[in-house]
Specification:
Shape: elongated
Largest sheet: 9 strands, mixed
Structural class: alpha/beta
CATH architecture of the largest domain: 3-Layer(aba) Sandwich
Helix content: 40-55%
CATH superfamily of the largest domain: Leucine Aminopeptidase, subunit E, domain 1
Strand content: 15-25%
Radius of gyration: 25 Å
Number of domains: 2
CATH class of the largest domain: Alpha Beta
CATH topology of the largest domain: Leucine Aminopeptidase, subunit E, domain 1
Distance between the termini: 30 Å
Number of helices: 14
Oligomer: single chain
Length: 355
């Protein structure tokens, strides 16, 4: 398991540090977490987790999953001294006795460098007089926080009309069995000429890359429709065709896709665009949303950060989309979600904190 950049005070990051100082650092996270959870729940008759499934431990550590609800319940109802006794037993069994001072110092450094911990909590942890106290209070605090890597931040609100910065997976929101039946509008950036061929790595003059939202969307659509059917749908309901900012509208299940022309391919099928084109696209999206969105949530990905060759950072893309939405906020009749791919979120949160 890759060690992530430890800038957030969360359960998974705390475990990464603790495990470095285990008697056997090569133990799996599955075993380390199982031993910790069993120690915490040892005196609780309702708690019986056994060996934590490997996929569960992996998803806790990659911050796809939160801490198990049973553990949070125990932490919330158990007096601190009983939790401290359990953590002390765990440390005596799992932590290298000769590395405890080094672990203590590393934990304090991690805590003081974390950007999401309150000054009061930092002060409490910095006042810890022993390693067991420090680990106990750190575990109590992080278990009470959401371990999952996500964001749901309201940028602007006027009654029911809102702009939000959220995290998620646009393809999952569009095509997963549970999500595709929930009405929503999803923006997919494409090129002006509506290229529909997703290229393999060995092609000499490739067209649409599978690494783009355009390519991923096409691959998902091919599970339902032929290329000919997709071509027909893309071309039959187009607003301002063959222009930057043109929008093709395609409804699949309960999801309305706005395919917005952000870029144009050159003679070598390289997509090219610029910031002015991006702003024009956002204006087109807002215009159509005002005309026909009917108040359904609109999801806009971070545009201009990939193969359109606009060359924006994630933060720059967020700022441009946000500023254009606010400039034309009279067009917002519902909720606009600027969606960040979850895998990019930690980098964005750190940069956002540094601004």
């Amino acid at each position: 398991m890759a060690v992530r950049d430890l800038k957030q005070f969360v359960f998974a990051n705390l475990i990464v540090i603790l495990k470095k100082y285990a008697n056997n650092p090569s133990d799996s996270f599955q075993l380390f977490l199982t031993d910790l959870f069993e120690a915490i729940g040892e005196n609780d008759d309702e708690y019986d987790i056994g060996m934590l499934p490997s996929n569960t431990s992996s998803r806790i550590m990659t911050r796809q999953y939160d801490v198990p609800n049973d553990i949070r319940t125990i932490i919330n109802k158990t007096p601190r001294e009983k939790i401290k006794n359990a953590i002390e037993s765990f440390c005596n069994y799992k932590i290298n006795i000769y590395e405890k001072e080094k672990l203590f110092n590393e934990l304090l450094t991690y805590i003081n460098n974390s950007f999401n911990i309150s000054p009061e909590s930092k002060q409490l942890l910095n006042n810890a007089t022993s390693l067991v106290d420090l680990i106990t209070d750190s575990i109590i605090m992080t278990v009470r926080l959401d371990n999952r890597l996500k964001i749901n931040e309201e940028i602007w609100c006027n009654g029911n009309n809102k702009i939000k910065l959220v995290s998620g997976d646009l393809m999952a929101l569009s095509f997963n069995s549970k999500e595709r039946v929930i009405p929503k509008i999803v923006v997919i950036p494409i090129d002006v000429d509506n290229h529909l061929h997703v290229s393999d790595i060995n092609e000499t003059n490739p067209e649409v890359s599978i690494k783009t939202l355009h390519g991923m969307w096409l691959k998902k659509m091919e599970q339902y429709y032929s290329i000919e059917e997709i071509q027909r749908m893309v071309t039959e309901n187009v607003i301002n065709p063959n222009e930057i900012g043109s929008i093709s509208k395609i409804c699949v299940n309960a999801v309305m896709f706005y395919l917005v022309s952000l870029s144009k391919f050159d003679a070598h099928n390289k997509a090219n665009s610029n910031i002015d084109n991006l702003k024009k696209c956002i204006q087109s999206i807002l215009e159509e949303y005002d005309n026909s969105g009917q108040g359904y949530p609109l999801y806009i990905p971070l545009l201009g950060t990939g193969r359109s060759r606009i060359g924006l950072s994630y933060e720059e893309s967020i700022k441009i989309i946000k500023d254009e939405c606010l400039k034309h906020k009279n067009k917002i009749q519902g909720e606009i979600h600027i969606i960040i791919y979850t895998k990019n979120l930690e980098e964005i949160l750190e940069a956002k904190n540094d601004l």
